[in-house]
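Issue 218. Parser rejects a valid record. Input:
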Amino acid sequence: MNAGARATIRRLAEDAGLRLSTEDRLVKHFHALVCVTYRTDFGKTAGAVYSVQRDDQRVAILILSLDGLPYCYMTNGFVAVFDQTNPGRLLIHEGGNPTFDLVAGERSAGPACNLSFDSRLDKPRVVFDFPSLLAAVLATGKTATQDKATKAVEVQTAHGRVLVELPRAGDPHGFPLKSLAMTGADRQSLAVGPIGTASAPAVDLLGVTRARIEGTGLPTHVIGADEAAKVHVFVPQGFGTNAAEKSAAGTFLALFARPKGNGGTTRSADND
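Output the parser choked on:
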């Protein structure tokens, strides 16, 4: 590997501040956008986009299709997901919590991105373990190059290609990593970014409640804990192709828009 590229990856992998989690008592506010794609048996690209936000004790995750249609929303004590047997209807449950983990896979065999909703969990959990991901890149990297201007590093590993982008001077997000993209030889890919600790996210996920959803007029159905435990949290292939489903998803998405005049990129308060 190129010496400069290796040094950059090593520095990031050894930076404990790159690990974001709900257990962290110093960095209590962060947000990140995650995109996961894979090839279907028919050669098409499928996947999902996860918008993840933490605001102290509160966590919210919005799962969208690659076309930008919201499929599932989960937060402290609440989940809402579109019903696949009744297009356009939202299944809702009060109770339980979401979990989201992005960590290095076993034996450094690529990243592991795990998302679930547990109807028995007493608090949410989110982990972005960038140091472990970058340590795995360092361990499996074969060749690497570094852009002289941007300092971005591209690494060819035993499992695929990795692109690490660093923030430019004056970047508003306040995080040492701008983005991380990983593409496997099997055409699976994972991209994270932007990642913010000092900026406000583009959408507001923390103010959506059952009452606000019902106030839109969208059809809803309350499910119990047993049904909530079986909720499919991955976007089904073909989601949004039904007209009623697409219309309902558009109405649902409008709930997460920031009020006009409140779309700034900088947080009004520090993480402490």
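Fixed in the parser; the record now loads. The chain is about 15% helix and 40% strand.
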